[in-house]
Amino acid sequence: xxxxxxxxxxxxxxxxxxxxxxxxxxxxxxxxxxxxxxxxxxxxxxxxxxxxxxxxxxxxxxxxxxxxxxxxxxxxxxxxxxxxxxxxxxxxxxxxxxxxxxxxxxxxxxxxxxxxxxxxxxxxxxxxxxxxxxxxxxxxxxxxxxxxxxxxxxxxxxxxxxxxxxxxxxxxxxxxxxxxxxxxxxxxxxxxxxxxxxxxxxxxxxxxxxxxxxxxxxxxxxxxxxxxxxxxxxxxxxxxxxxxxxxxxxxxxxxxxxxxxxxxxxxxxxxxxxxxxxxxxxxxxxxxxxxxxxxxxxxxxxxxxxxxxxxxxxxxxxxxxxxxxxxxxxxxxxxxxxxxxxxxxxxxxxxxxxxxxxxxxxxxxxxxxxxxxxxxxxxxxxxxxxxxxxxxxxxxxxxxxxxxxxxxxxxxxxxxxxxxxxx
Length: 423
Fold this sequence. Notes:
Elements: H1 4-39, H2 51-67, H3 76-96, H4 101-104, H5 106-114, H6 119-135, H7 143-245, H8 250-275, H9 281-285, H10 288-303, E1 306-312, H11 320-341, E2 345-353, E3 356-363, H12 383-394, E4 398-403, E5 409-416
Parallel strand pairs: 1-2
Antiparallel strand pairs: 2-3, 3-5, 4-5
Helix pairs in contact: 1-2, 1-5, 1-7, 2-3, 3-5, 3-6, 5-6, 6-7, 7-8, 7-12, 10-11, 11-12
């Protein structure tokens, strides 16, 4: 298929050659007329000025107005003077010899070259009269000749006017077609530029998506490391410190050491599962309420703090990510109680309420001002609360913390109850 640019180039090339043909044909018509008038002279010609003189003046007239000054074709009044002179020279030549009808025929072409609007039909009509006269062998000399002349003139004027009319329509269509082709070429150019811009934007979006994915994965690994390795190591350190203090009591020492070993193995298992982005083992083997009850029971045994777990509403499977979020939130809240609260009682409540599930963890510990920033002396540097907020916000939930010095702490996580299956 021919491209739009090639169509534009071909149309422009033809339009560039067309004026050259119009400027050359008058001289060909003059040459043919002079040749035929010389070898086959017509005795009835009306000679006012010798043919070669008129032909020379006509050639000079055309050369001055058209060939030497091509820019003048856009000046309507000046071209009206030129076309009048062209018809005058053609009339003198045709009246002298009908053979100069070959030259007069150029009037049809130049009517479209230099005239505009309705003046083209005036020029075509004048040329038709000259062509009819040439075809009739000169000026009529009898009634029959006059009738023949009238028929020839009417025929030439009619045909030329019809051709001129269709020519004007064709010119308009060509102009519209050229404009449409140019607009299409411009649209294609803009489309190509837009596609190049889109390619750059696509590459930029891919880079941003890759960077966002790396950031999300880093945040996920940071949370998982905090929830597994950091908490596990904290528990191990606590148990080893307790074992060191119970060296004189063999049974207590062994219990703390065994607990530390179990915590180490559990932390290692959870760390491996985190790297593979697998759900916590507690949720693989049980539903969320049972997993929270087991987590609280083990935490209570290790930290020797009384706990109570309650489930309200009808328990149902949730989306895996929601269950992981609630389990990790409970795990972090209990870890904070063990490290900072010095509590004697802890209560955990899981509430299924229509389209929302709420987890509440309360303790009767020392509390803290919730408006204060995390203390840099804390072992987790305050990342625990940040991790909880990120996890809960990641599933479209909200985390609220209520606490005051000496009044204990309450952590509440509310998340959408997206349906899902248990693993």
